[in-house]
Each structure stands twice: as C-alpha cells, then as structure tokens.
Recover the amino acids of this structure.
C-alpha cells in the first residue's frame, strides 16, 4: 500500500511540475508570465513584453511560491528578462506610451499555487489516506468479531 501511495505522489509531483521543470526536485525555478506586448525595446533593440516573474522553491515537491513582481521579458527568448526600470524612468516610459499606464493588474494562478505548495498538499493526501486505511482496518476488525 505504501509503495502505491508513493508512486501516486511521484506522478502527481511530476505532472504539476510543468514542462521546463519536469525533473526539478531541489532548488528554485523561475517562471516568466507574459501579460502584454510593449513598444519599448531592450538595450540592443530586442523586442520586449511586459510580464511578471514567480520563483518556486522545491524539495522533492513545491515548498513555496513567491511573486517577484513585474519584469520586461525578451520576445525572442521567454526565459530571459530585464528588471523593471526605476520609478522615474518607468514614469517617463509610460508618458511616452512605451509602457502601459497604469500597469495591468495580475495575480498568480491556481496552477502556480498548486506547484508552489505541492509538497504540503502531497503530505496532506498521504496523511488522509493513512487515516482512511486505519479506519477501514478498525471497521473490518469490528465486523470479524
């Protein structure tokens, strides 16, 4: 029974990990989420998009997820980004129409939270399954007497 539960949890963790992090069991993974295209270009003329970044800490499963705020992502490579400019430069870019004013609202999705706290969810499932097995064993013993 314990092996089956372990196998089910391992499959769940891998399914919740996403493509880029399919085998990330330890460490921190960063995810870039695109919000919208912008006319602002990078230092080398690269096309950018406005987005936000999350960081998920893993120890076999997800321990925590953190919202790292707005970023400017590179259109050519969605794994690379630039930090948002300081407030005075941001206001200047917004007044020129290079960035939206106000910046669009965003929130982390359910998938981000599930991945970010998957270790804790998995442990809760194991505890619940264990308690169910104990209750079943007790009820079977009562029937036998």
């Amino acid at each position: 029974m314990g092996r089956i539960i372990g196998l089910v949890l391992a499959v769940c963790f891998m399914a919740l990990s996403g493509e880029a992090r399919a085998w990330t069991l330890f460490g921190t993974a960063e995810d870039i989420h695109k919000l919208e295209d912008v006319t602002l270009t990078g230092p080398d003329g690269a096309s950018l998009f406005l987005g936000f970044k999350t960081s998920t800490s893993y120890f076999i499963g997800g321990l925590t997820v953190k919202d790292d705020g707005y970023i400017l992502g590179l259109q050519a490579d969605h794994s690379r980004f630039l930090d948002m400019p300081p407030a005075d430069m941001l206001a200047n870019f917004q007044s020129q129409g290079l960035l939206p004013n106000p910046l669009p609202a965003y929130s982390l999705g359910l998938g981000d939270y599930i991945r970010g706290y998957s270790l804790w969810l998995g442990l809760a499932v194991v505890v619940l399954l264990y308690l169910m097995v104990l209750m079943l064993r007790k009820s079977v013993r009562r029937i036998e007497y």
Summary: Helices lie at 2-17, 87-95, 110-116, 118-144. The CA atoms of residues 16 and 111 lie 8 Å apart. The longest helix spans residues 118-144. DSSP finds four helices and four strands in the chain.
